[in-house]
């Protein structure tokens, strides 16, 4: 039986130059859509009656031109099995971010920056600590000298001192999803150090497929230039692994390769085979479920002792 909710995906161009163009989205599902259940609201006003459907695509023309900046459309719809999806989509009116580097993906998934291959050697979890004198400058300088070229951080990710040190040492960063409604959004969107928007961590534990699709759509709504990425453990031995239902929803995947749990288990001796299986399953999921989208893979390799961080 179909137990998955429908998937709602934005189809209209965003950022939008034409403030009078309709907002368009499509709805996909394995068992078919109950179109009588469709509810669409704009600024908390029900505008379902103004929607025009052609096949699986729906368009909403504005009564007056869309306002500059953020226009939020909320969509609720069920499939024929009663599975309900609720989605919040952004139509952004305004210019694309002025990014100095052109970032793209080659057909084989290699990231290109200004046409040149970029192989990420990155590290998670940078912090001000005793080892770096509680200094972002010193810590980032140490990482750059050690050969790292990419960083990601929890909590500190948008700290000005941190971002300035990253830029000064020519490093790149994968950063949490952009929020165009914050006052500093233009600065973050234009930051040349950002190479990808990191929109899911342990994705399948925290987000439904629709929630990740919304994050992907809404990041692209303000920045159609840079790719999106998520991270998760594969659990490739399961009938439906953690990645399968999310494969089409981001450009990149950071497979969490964490084989060493403790000295008391036998799991460690299978770590090479498990890693090979995980990456083969990742490739299979993309070929079957990836919706013809080019994907990059940045495996996240365990670098902590045991399973207690």
Please characterize this protein's 3D structure:
The protein has six helices and 19 strands. It has helices at residues 136-145, 160-168, 185-189, 203-206, 209-222, 271-289; strands at residues 7-10, 23-28, 33-42, 45-46, 51-54, 57-60, 69-79, 84-93, 103-105, 111-113, 116-118, 122-123, 150-151, 172-175, 194-201, 228-232, 252-257, 296-297, 300-301. Strand 13, helix 2 (160-168) and strand 14 form a beta-alpha-beta unit. By secondary structure, the protein is an alpha/beta fold.
Question: Key terms for this structure?
Answer:
6 helices, 8-stranded parallel beta sheet, 309 residues, 20% helix, 4-stranded antiparallel beta sheet, single chain, alpha/beta
List the helices and strands and how they pair.
Elements: E1 7-10, E2 23-28, E3 33-42, E4 45-46, E5 51-54, E6 57-60, E7 69-79, E8 84-93, E9 103-105, E10 111-113, E11 116-118, E12 122-123, H1 136-145, E13 150-151, H2 160-168, E14 172-175, H3 185-189, E15 194-201, H4 203-206, H5 209-222, E16 228-232, E17 252-257, H6 271-289, E18 296-297, E19 300-301
Parallel strand pairs: 12-13, 13-14, 14-15, 15-16, 16-17, 17-18, 17-19
Antiparallel strand pairs: 1-2, 2-6, 3-4, 3-7, 5-6, 7-8, 9-10, 10-11
């Amino acid at each position: 039986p179909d137990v998955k909710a429908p998937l709602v995906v934005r189809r209209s161009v965003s950022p939008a130059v034409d403030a009078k163009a309709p907002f368009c989205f499509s709805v996909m599902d394995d068992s078919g859509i109950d179109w009588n259940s469709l509810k669409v609201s704009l600024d908390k006003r029900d505008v379902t009656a103004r929607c025009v459907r052609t096949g699986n695509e729906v368009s909403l023309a504005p009564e007056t031109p869309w306002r500059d900046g953020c226009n939020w459309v909320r969509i609720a719809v069920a499939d024929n099995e009663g599975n309900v999806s609720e989605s919040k989509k952004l139509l952004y009116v305004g210019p694309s971010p002025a990014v100095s580097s052109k970032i793209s993906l080659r057909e084989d998934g290699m990231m290109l920056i200004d046409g040149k291959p970029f192989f990420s050697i990155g590290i998670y979890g940078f912090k001000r600590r005793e080892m770096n004198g509680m200094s972002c400058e010193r810590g980032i300088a140490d990482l750059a000298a050690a050969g790292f070229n990419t960083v990601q951080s929890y909590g500190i990710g948008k700290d000005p001192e941190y971002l300035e040190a990253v830029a000064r040492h020519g490093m790149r960063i994968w950063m949490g999803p952009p929020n165009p409604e914050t006052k500093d959004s233009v600065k973050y969107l234009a930051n040349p150090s950002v190479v990808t928007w990191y929109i899911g961590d342990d994705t399948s534990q925290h987000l439904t497929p629709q929630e990740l699709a919304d994050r992907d759509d809404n990041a692209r709504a303000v920045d159609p230039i840079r790719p999106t990425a998520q991270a998760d453990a594969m659990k490739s031995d399961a009938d439906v692994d953690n990645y399968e239902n999310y494969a089409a929803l981001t450009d990149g995947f950071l497979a969490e390769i964490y084989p060493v749990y403790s000295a008391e288990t036998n799991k460690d001796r299978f770590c090479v085979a498990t890693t090979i299986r995980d990456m083969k399953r990742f490739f299979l999921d993309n070929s079957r479920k990836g919706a013809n989208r080019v994907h990059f893979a940045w495996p996240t390799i365990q670098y902590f002792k045991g399973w207690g961080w």
